[in-house]
Amino acid sequence: MNRTSGRVARALAGVFMLACASVVAPAARAQKAAAASASFDRRVIPTPGKNPELHVPSWTKVALSNGAQLVVLERHGLPLVSVQVNFIGGANQYEPAGRTGLAVFVANQMMEGTAHRTGEQIVNDLQMLGTNFSSPLISGESGRVTFVSTKEQLAPTLAIVADVMENATFPQDALERYRARILVNLTQAQDRTGSISADVFPKLVYGADHPYGRTMTEATVKSITRDDLVSLYKAYFQPAHAIVTVVGDVKPDEAKRIVEQAFAHWPAGGSMPSFAYPALPAAKPTTIYLVDKPGAAQSTFRIGETGPARGTPDYYAIRVMNEMLGVLFQSRLNRNIREEKSYSYGVGSGFQFGRGPGAFFAGGDIMTAKNDSALIEFMKELRDIRGPRPPSDEEMAQAKASLVQSLPESFETLSGVNANVSSIYSQGLPEDYYAQFVRAVGAVTKEDVVRVAQKYIDLDHLAILIVGDREKIEGPLMATKIAPIVRLDVNGNPIVDTVRP
């Protein structure tokens, strides 16, 4: 046998051995699994594992030379760094009247080019650095620019981010492309009951003139100009209301040096915004507002009213109450309307906590033939949580466990830690908020739950918005005699006089 044929023979022998192993190994594994299964008593419910413990990391906070704040939290397990440039205040504070949606345009168009890079170059440069970059965002009361990079590429990535924040050019052609896409989206949204509900509900609760009641419309989108984008961009991206949070494999002094270098050309300026919102409109008696969507396969319910600000001392009691009302899968609303009655694939409730009076709402998508029955059950559960059926020991335990045990997981990743720490500053919370959380939730009593339900769920002043096929649902809704009905168009404008049950 020559040397070549010997190598071939050995290779074939190796392949044969691997093939045999591939047959034997699964058989051995199956045999082992069968033995383990035989010794496992499936009649006994496994005991729960140990509850996860919340370990809140510490961080340092210093001022940068331009007035921005720098927060650094060290985590040296991997050579990665998460950075979030946070801005206090958002569209509610910086958008001019009649330009709702402008902040969304600015955040989207920043990446279309700067004085030094085209939009394509920005994307390519970030990809070449291996950076996980999230698109800029300006929401109602805050904004952010976020990325995760390797420690080695932190400085060059920050240089690109600084360029986007300081030198965006907003090309007219890119603006027009984005405007056309948004107009198409708005048109398509009027075919979806959920989208209609999301736009109309704030107008009903707050009125169209309150910042919480404004929504993007075709008229506001068409009115936005490039000069509007430039004006808001220059006013918004100022260091006086910026907080840079850095989490990962970097020390505070090193992070400060890199951030200062990256933002060396970002001059001091701006101011902290005011969160003084205008007075709320007078609460109206409970009314059913019906938006007709002929042929809709199901209806969307949204029932609610104005609620408390995030800073309310009732915050923890509200969170516990709302968990059992409409957050947990076995919450009262979902168990009743989905699990027991089968009127919906899922319903729930929530409080839109903000710096101002965010709304309370309950709702979901309901099958057309059961709109009346579902509304009766919604009102029953809202009434019961206020006292007729106070929370049980089991409900209290489940609600508190859900809130407390979900927190440790949110601190597992760099991005999660950064988001949690950033939220403290963007929402104006005390720096020891997470350390307080477990204790504060644990201190909530049944009496607290009933008290806040009575205080913040006012059955006499609810806006009951239902978007669905009026021809099929209006008669049965009237027959419930729960409230008078007002018909609205898809933009939330009344189209006929009130129809009383």
SSE layout and pairing:
Blueprint lengths: L2 H36 L21 E4 L5 E6 L5 E9 L2 H4 L7 H8 L9 H10 L3 E7 L3 E9 L3 H14 L4 H18 L3 H14 L11 H6 L2 H11 L5 E7 L3 H11 L24 E6 L5 E9 L8 H13 L4 H9 L6 E5 L7 E9 L3 H14 L8 H13 L1 H4 L3 H13 L6 H10 L3 H11 L6 E6 L1 H10 L5 E4 L13
Helix pairs in contact: 3-9, 5-10, 11-14, 11-18, 12-13
Written description of the protein model:
With 501 residues, the chain is an alpha+beta fold. Helix content is 46%, strand content 16%. The chain has 19 helices and 12 strands. It has helices at residues 3-38, 91-94, 102-109, 119-128, 154-167, 172-189, 193-206, 218-223, 226-236, 252-262, 315-327, 332-340, 371-384, 393-405, 407-410, 414-426, 433-442, 446-456, 470-479, and strands at 60-63, 69-74, 80-88, 132-138, 142-150, 242-248, 287-292, 298-306, 347-351, 359-367, 463-468, 485-488. The strands form 2 sheets. Strands 1-2-6-3-5-4 form a 6-stranded mixed β-sheet, sandwiched between helices. A 6-stranded mixed β-sheet has the order 9-10-8-11-7-12, sandwiched between helices. The radius of gyration is 28 Å and the shape is globular.
Q: Could you list the spans in which at least 5 consecutive residues all have pLDDT below 50?
A: 1-5, 7-24
- Radius of gyration, in Å, reads 28 Å
Percentage of residues assigned to helices = 40-55%
User: Average pLDDT across residues?
Assistant: 92
Number of helices: 19
Largest sheet: number of strands, sense, barrel closure: 6 strands, mixed
Strand residues, percent: 15-25%
Intertermini distance: 100 Å
**Helix-strand category:** alpha+beta
* Total count of strands: 12
Strand order of the largest sheet: 1-2-6-3-5-4
Principal-axis shape equals globular
